[in-house]
Amino acid sequence: MSNPPLKAVSLTHVRYEKGDQLGHFLAWVSLVPIFITFGGFVSHFVFRRELQGMFFALGILVSQFINEFVKSSVQQARPETCALLEICDSHGWPSSHAQYMFFFAMYFTLLSVRKAAISGGKNSASNSKWILELVAWALALLTLYSRVYLGYHTVAQVFAGAFLGIFLGAFLNMIMRELREKMWLPRLISSALQPPEIMQLILQKLKW
């Protein structure tokens, strides 16, 4: 009896040609979504526990769910190099890595812009986030390039993921902001159970 074929988790399944230093670097770049998820969001929840971070993480989960739904619906094959990478049994359009990173960059940029508008641009922490925004977009572009260079996606597949990530980042940011401001926040403000001091603290925590 032959053994059943093995399947790797696509999000962490990264290969590169032995001796290719650029490929080695780009393989690590492809793992940036993992570092963001576990290094960024988990530590944020543990140490800060802000609703803003929870909304952000929820948006990424929704984005990735949409990506899997679109992939299974379109069922576009990966490039011919998929045989060497042993991933031909999975679909390639749109690229989940590109969508993840461009969603992250777009959502984070909108958060920073809104927070800077609230603070009037005088907050040093808000000013430093402009640098982080550039880093986020640079990593998104590197991830996009890495998926093509390593043979996991075609150019069309990574650009589809990038555009979908940007669109969902802007759209879900708007939805989350509307839900927070028009549904939850008025309910908290009208509650007689919260003393004024606690309400002020909650309002400060919810500012974007």
From TrEMBL:
<dbReference type="InterPro" id="IPR036938">
    <property type="entry name" value="PAP2/HPO_sf"/>
</dbReference>
<feature type="domain" description="Phosphatidic acid phosphatase type 2/haloperoxidase">
    <location>
        <begin position="53"/>
        <end position="173"/>
    </location>
</feature>
<dbReference type="Pfam" id="PF01569">
    <property type="entry name" value="PAP2"/>
</dbReference>
<keyword id="KW-1133">Transmembrane helix</keyword>
<keyword id="KW-0812">Transmembrane</keyword>
<dbReference type="GO" id="GO:0005789">
    <property type="term" value="C:endoplasmic reticulum membrane"/>
</dbReference>
<keyword id="KW-0378">Hydrolase</keyword>
<feature type="transmembrane region" description="Helical">
    <location>
        <begin position="25"/>
        <end position="47"/>
    </location>
</feature>
<dbReference type="InterPro" id="IPR039667">
    <property type="entry name" value="Dolichyldiphosphatase_PAP2"/>
</dbReference>
<feature type="transmembrane region" description="Helical">
    <location>
        <begin position="156"/>
        <end position="175"/>
    </location>
</feature>
<dbReference type="GO" id="GO:0008610">
    <property type="term" value="P:lipid biosynthetic process"/>
</dbReference>
<dbReference type="InterPro" id="IPR000326">
    <property type="entry name" value="PAP2/HPO"/>
</dbReference>
<feature type="transmembrane region" description="Helical">
    <location>
        <begin position="130"/>
        <end position="150"/>
    </location>
</feature>
<keyword id="KW-0472">Membrane</keyword>
<protein>
    <recommendedName>
        <fullName>Phosphatidic acid phosphatase type 2/haloperoxidase domain-containing protein</fullName>
    </recommendedName>
</protein>
<dbReference type="GO" id="GO:0006487">
    <property type="term" value="P:protein N-linked glycosylation"/>
</dbReference>
<dbReference type="GO" id="GO:0047874">
    <property type="term" value="F:dolichyldiphosphatase activity"/>
</dbReference>
